[in-house]
Amino acid sequence: MSATRQLDDTERVSWLQLSRTERIGPVTFNGLLQRYGTASRAIEALPGLNKAGGGRGVSLFPRKAAEEEILKAERLGARFVAIGENGYPAYLQHIQAAPPLVCILGRRELAAVDAVAIVGARNASANGARFARMVARALAEAGLAVVSGLARGIDTAAHEGSLAHATLAVMAGGIDYIYPPENERLYHQIAEKGLVVSEMPPGFVPKAEHFPRRNRIISGMARAIVVVEAAMRSGSLITARYAADQGRDVFAVPGSPLDPRCEGSNRLIRDGALILTSVDDVLEALRATARPQRDAFLDAAPASAAVNDIGGSERQKVMGLLSHSETELDEIIRASGLAPEQVAAVLLELEIAGRVSRTPGGRISLLG
């Protein structure tokens, strides 16, 4: 997959500034980019959009802070890359609400390699870790990259098995926040031989709520995911759910029903995940599965002239269809009778004004 975008230094700062601004998530960012063409012009338009949506103001992320983030990354040997640029994980850009930018450290070319994610228990058994290491090595030798989260147990084994060829580590914190500490040596090996990826600012210390975001990126970067030993309430099952939502193949390694570390992975199989007994299971599935094609950032058409025809009646019509319960975007468009571009423009104003919330799946609900 070749790059389709190359930001200059000024626009890169604007992208980071806009993406870090309160109330502007990936979906809103994309809408602004479609409407205004560049992040710089979108930033100039924010006050007017906020006023049109009835908001009380927009707290724009400081440009100096965005510049400092980029400088900190560069001092570490890392770089912020935008969706569509070389170095942005190829398959991540195809998921809904993909991060506009990620910070990368290491071999940038590995971001374009087809990847498989391997995740599992932190307190892995010796056999589980050995199997994960073996599968990772075989996948890497077959020309695939292996993605994981640098956690203890299965993640560590997956990185070790694929380190000699292609391994990618996704961080919950900043690109330089190494967790667990005992994986410091492995982290530096990956930074040299593989690729480290984070959507957070350098130096950022993650909290519990940031690990599911990390898991969503792990699954989004891969064409398939392999779960080895997962308890019923584990981050690995969250990653598997994200993978299924993203249209990825989900494999699980069967384990003893007497081992609580296998309860979640066995449940995945019961609920329809593919059984993995050897690396050939994954390779055969990938050969039979089409690569993802949809890309909201890169394939979206620019906003039409209908956006310029929005008035008070259009805004009232959309507002009247919203409630505190989540509503599908398609239902709002159908019930309003307005052009999709008009509905999207009104919702964009309301999001920036802080009056509505949008899920990654596109459902809208009123706030407050």
Mind sketching the topology for me?
Layout: H1 9-19, H2 26-36, H3 39-52, H4 63-75, E1 79-82, E2 101-106, E3 115-120, H5 126-141, E4 145-148, H6 154-162, E5 167-170, H7 184-193, E6 195-198, H8 210-220, E7 224-228, H9 235-245, E8 249-252, H10 263-270, E9 274-275, H11 279-288, H12 296-299, H13 312-321, H14 329-336, H15 340-352, E10 356-358, E11 364-366
Parallel strand pairs: 3-4, 3-7, 4-5, 5-6, 7-8, 8-9
Antiparallel strand pairs: 1-2, 2-6, 10-11
Concise summary:
The chain is an alpha/beta fold. The chain has helices at 9-19, 26-36, 39-52, 63-75, 126-141, 154-162, 184-193, 210-220, 235-245, 263-270, 279-288, 296-299, 312-321, 329-336, 340-352; strands spanning 79-82, 101-106, 115-120, 145-148, 167-170, 195-198, 224-228, 249-252, 274-275, 356-358, 364-366.
